[in-house]
Specification:
The protein is of the alpha+beta class and 371 residues long. The protein is 15% helix and 36% strand. It starts with a helix and ends with a strand.
Length: 371
């Protein structure tokens, strides 16, 4: 009899406790699901934030810092990882990383930028014949084919032409949800958002080159990237529950003054043809030399510091030392050589010199006999 009473009391206690335990379990599960959604969005944001803020580190002057600006994708150049312990510009050191993922992407391994048909790069980025240490890093989202929904996305990361790596899942996009990436550029000392209708923008030309103008040059003026990630959790009772993580990242290196790389030999200049007029005259005898700036002065490597002029008497085999040096400051140059006499025969040569210093190939012009 006592056993029956005890068992009855225990059944009653368990009957009353079971709903409580079920409610507790459901609460923990729901909280864990919401926390997963929050943590997933936070992890996606932090991963990109950690890397994009150093965009441009280790990049050459002619190498774009921000390559692609898209509402669902971003691509930039940075020296993130190196297997060389002596690489002072690298953010991380990893001796086990593949060598192909630690230098700039060569033209021979050209890739298609995410969510586009645009090819990159269109040239090799070299310094002293060696590739730049800044690799190309891409982040983008694509539809999650395993979810069965068109508004659920996954975040990917790729370095150079390496395999894409999954960063985060259950990223939701749709009506009323902010785009993943928004871009703010500097316009007359004011940050102005680039309209979504103007995106995407690609920087595939030489940085600072002739094609780097107009709307396509806006990526050079981007100073802030605004990121928004919304994580998804499907609550059995409430349905979709979302958690958003949003914030802005300053691109600290974009906009800094470019300095010379002192890398490849400068592109030469011309002392002949229509570009230069070298005219011997009398009263007193002198030779007027003119030339246009080297391409590497204002574009390309931007490392031309001066122009050096050589001269020799006609028929001599060597040029010897330059007789004058002119600072590289303008688009066109002229020099009048008065250290000559009537009846002399001189030949002139010109070279562009960078900060190595290294000279371009010499360009010659034979003066003939001075009247």
């Amino acid at each position: 009899m006592e056993m029956l009473i005890a068992m009855t009391i225990m059944v009653l206690i368990f009957s009353m406790a079971l709903p409580f335990f079920r409610a507790q379990t459901r609460t923990v599960t729901d909280f864990g699901g919401r926390l997963d959604a929050q943590q997933n969005a936070r992890f996606a944001f932090n991963t990109i934030d950690r890397e994009i803020r150093v965009a441009g580190v280790g990049a050459l002057d002619q190498q774009p810092m921000l390559v692609q600006a898209d509402s669902l994708a971003v691509t930039f150049n940075a020296d993130l990882i190196s297997r060389d312990s002596g690489d002072a510009s690298a953010i991380y050191y990893n001796p086990n990383v593949a060598a192909a993922l630690t230098t700039s992407l060569p033209l021979s391994r050209q890739i298609t930028l995410p969510r586009s048909s645009t090819l990159y790069p269109l040239q090799d980025y070299l310094s002293r014949g060696q590739p730049s240490f800044a690799e190309t890093v891409s982040f983008w989202v694509s539809t999650d084919s395993t979810s069965g929904r068109s508004d659920v996305f996954v975040l990917w990361r790729r370095v150079n032409d390496g395999p894409p790596r999954l960063v985060a899942k259950n990223i939701i996009l749709g009506a009323g949800i902010a785009p993943i990436f928004r871009y703010f550029r500097l316009d007359a000392d004011t940050l102005v958002e680039i309209p979504r209708t103007s995106l995407p923008i690609y920087h595939v030309s030489v940085h600072g080159g002739a094609a780097d103008t107009g709307r396509l040059s806006w990526v050079d003026s981007v100073r802030v990237v605004r990121m928004s990630f919304t994580g998804l959790y499907n609550d059995p009772k409430l349905g979709d529950v979302t958690r958003k993580v949003e914030g802005s990242v300053r691109l600290l290196n974009i906009g800094l003054q470019a300095v010379g790389t002192c890398g490849d030999v400068p592109i030469g200049v011309t002392l002949a043809g229509a570009v230069v007029a070298a005219v011997p005259t009398v009263s007193p005898a002198h030779v007027d030399l003119t030339w246009a700036a080297s391409t590497d002065q204002a574009f390309g490597e931007k490392d031309v510091e001066r122009y050096v002029l050589f001269k020799r008497r006609a028929g001599q085999p060597l040029w010897g030392d330059p007789f004058v040096s002119i600072p590289a400051t303008t688009a066109t140059y002229s020099y009048s050589d008065t250290q000559i006499n009537s009846g002399d025969t001189w030949e002139y040569s010109l070279a562009a010199q960078d900060c190595t210093p290294a000279n371009s190939a010499l360009s010659s012009w034979a003066s003939g006999v001075i009247p």
